[in-house]
UniProtKB/TrEMBL annotation:
Family annotation (Gene3D superfamilies): ABC transporter type 1, transmembrane domain, P-loop containing nucleotide triphosphate hydrolases
Keyword terms: ATP-binding, Cell membrane, Membrane, Nucleotide-binding, Transmembrane, Transmembrane helix, Transport
Keyword Nucleotide-binding: yes
Membrane topology: Multi-pass membrane protein
Protein name in the entry: Multidrug ABC transporter permease/ATP-binding protein
All copies of domain ABC transmembrane type-1, residue ranges: 21-304
Domain of life: Bacteria
Location(s), subcellular: Cell membrane
Record domain ABC transporter: where: 337-572
Transmembrane segments: 21-44, 56-78, 127-151, 157-176, 251-269, 281-302
Cellular compartments per GO CC: plasma membrane
Gene Ontology molecular function, alphabetical: ABC-type oligopeptide transporter activity; ATP binding; ATP hydrolysis activity
Biological classification of the source: Bacteria, Bacillati, Bacillota, Bacilli, Bacillales
Segments forming a coiled coil: none
Length: 582
């Protein structure tokens, strides 16, 4: 149960001064809190023996008020220090998580669903923070404060009465231990179910257009209700155990009260203790209720925190499949790119998605990559971005093996426009500035001209300031593609990768964008993957992929003379375009 504190020792060591101050202040406040009951007992004894004077009463009342003020001030200090530390832990862990997410490769996101990662970044972090705040409080109160109370009751009143009143404690320890084990298991299941529900909601929102188009609203609603019922049942299972803590504690505390009051009254009659001692003892017994409750709360909080911390640590401890080299080589510019017998297969598969790729690209060249769906075009780009491990053969940038160069440096060279454009829930301006944070409006309009988006921006209600909505829902497919193109253009990358990024625009717009590309990127390397072959006819070199292998390569003119797949596909597309025009 206390393993959670050991797992968080890195945090407590860093903030040991903060936590030392909070715990010491808490103990001092608890010690001060033990004095007023003795004052009450003393006053009652003075009343009983008719020795209470106005001066003595004034001293007792003033002392009581002073103690209350001091207790309040010290309590404020430990409360603020302790719980602000818990907030810092939550912030730190969340920052570690997002930093970890940004380093992860597609393999990681294939294993963990988005909804589950969201649950770990929200609910689980709250449980961990509660451990570092409320957990520490209950630990101190259920140990130090409880022992201070017991010592005060025993030494200042009666050990016989104290030990008799504490008979229920061992029973409580056994029951709380069983409750704690059940809480840990059930809370872990509940958090996992919550993560699955999050993922289902996310998918439903993202796919709302498809759901409506296929009239699947009722089925999706039923599916969601089934999942929420599962989450409900698992949380009810947690709540059932949680609900047993308080009644169990009340029964045991009530038993302590009964023993204390009954046996204490007998001791008063026997003149072993005074009436004031009995009153003080019962006040202390009342104060002991919280430390006894704190034992149950401590077990509850620590088990929840331990379960959540295990889930978060499982995520953070996941090692990235692709990592920076120990001794990276600095490469200033990309003068050439070489594929030497490069083969690759995705993790978990035995079939090669790329096989024996040989390609030499000089700086400033435009490379066209074409082929059937699933031929390996996107995979070729993914290994250039080092998204996956296990690349066989050699892929070199400026005669330096890719695996000897820092990931950040490789990706800083590349401007990538994927097949599925990602739009952030921000304005058009902010989406384009993602490629260059300090880009001016003049620069933005220039790249919008390159992407043939200027006329579209004039029609948007707030121009560059128009919010695109979640995932760019307010933009059409062609508009999203062109915003993504502008975002890549403004970066002015040494290597530009367009992965079927012109599929949603018409032929006329495509030809204008290609013309702008040829002018702007004369001395820079560009890769264009496309199904519409008109997008690559101007390329310096074109390769045709089939089942991950290069089956044809050359310029447009050379491939047209080969009478292979390229010529057949090009002529078919030209014929289709003529039929559309006619």
């Amino acid at each position: 149960m206390f393993q959670v504190f050991k797992k968080l020792d890195w945090f407590f060591k860093h903030y040991w001064k903060r936590y030392t101050f909070a715990i010491v202040s808490l103990i001092i406040a608890s010690a001060i809190g033990l004095i007023p009951p003795r004052l009450i007992g003393y006053a009652i004894d003075q009343i009983q023996f008719s020795t209470l004077t106005a001066k003595l009463l004034t001293i007792i009342v003033v002392g009581y008020v002073v103690l209350l003020v001091i207790h309040y001030c010290i309590s404020f200090l430990w409360d603020y220090t302790l719980f602000s530390g818990a907030v810092i832990l939550e912030r730190w862990t969340r920052s570690k998580l997002i930093d970890h997410f940004l380093k992860m490769t597609p393999t990681f996101y294939g294993k963990y669903k988005t909804g589950d990662l969201m649950a770990r970044s929200t609910n689980d972090l709250k449980a961990i923070a509660q451990t570092a705040g409320f957990g520490v409080l209950t630990l101190v109160d259920s140990t130090t404060f409880m022992f201070m109370l017991i010592a005060m009751m025993g030494f200042s009143i009666s050990w016989k009465l104290t030990l008799a009143a504490l008979i229920p404690l061992p029973i409580m320890a056994i029951i709380m231990n069983k409750y704690g084990a059940a809480i840990h298991a059930r809370f872990t299941d509940a958090q996992a179910a919550f993560g699955n529900m999050n993922n289902e909601v996310l998918e439903s929102i993202r796919g709302i257009r498809v759901i409506r188009a296929f009239v699947q609203e009722k089925q999706d609603k039923d599916r969601f209700e089934t999942m929420t019922e599962e989450v409900y049942q698992k949380n009810i299972a947690v709540a059932k155990i949680d609900a047993m803590f308080e009644p169990t504690m009340k029964i045991l505390v009530g038993l302590s009260y009964t023993i204390g009051l009954g046996y204490g009254t007998m001791l008063v009659f026997e003149n072993v203790i005074s009436l004031g001692d009995l009153v003080s003892f019962n006040v202390y017994l009342g104060m002991l209720i919280w430390p006894m409750f704190a034992v149950g709360e401590l077990i509850n909080v620590l088990q929840r925190g331990n379960a959540s911390l295990d889930r978060v640590n499982e995520t953070i401890n996941y090692k990235a499949d692709v990592q920076n080299p120990e001794n990276p080589v600095e490469v200033g510019h990309v003068d050439s790119i070489d594929f030497n017998n490069v083969s690759f297969s995705y993790p978990g598969t035995k079939i090669n998605q790329l096989e024996n790729i040989n390609l030499h690209i000089q700086k400033g060249q435009t490379i066209g990559i074409v082929g059937k769906t699933g031929s390996g075009k996107t995979t070729l780009f993914k290994i250039m971005l080092r998204q996956y491990p296990g690349v066989r053969g050699q892929l070199k940038f400026s005669n330096t093996d890719m695996e000897m160069i820092n990931l950040e440096q490789i990706r800083s060279w590349i401007g990538y426009v994927p097949q599925d454009q990602i739009m952030f829930s921000k304005s058009v301006r902010e989406n384009i500035q993602f490629g260059k944070n300090d880009a001016s409006d003049d620069e933005i309009f220039h790249v919008m001209e390159l992407a043939h988006f200027v006329e579209d921006i004039k029609q948007l209600p707030q121009g560059l300031g128009t919010m695109v909505g979640e995932s760019g829902v307010t933009l059409s497919g062609g508009q999203k593609q062109r915003v993504a193109l502008a975002r890549a253009f403004i970066k002015e990358p040494e290597i530009l990768i367009l992965d079927d990024s012109l599929s949603a625009v018409d032929g006329k717009t495509e030809s204008k964008i290609i013309e702008h590309l040829r002018k702007e990127r004369k001395n820079k390397t560009t890769f264009i993957a496309a199904h519409r072959l008109s997008a690559v006819t101007h390329a310096d070199h074109i390769i045709v992929l089939e089942d991950g292998k290069i089956v044809e390569e050359g310029t447009h003119e050379e491939l047209m003379q080969n009478a292979g797949w390229y010529k057949e596909q090009y002529e078919q597309q030209q014929l289709d375009d003529e039929e559309v025009i006619s």
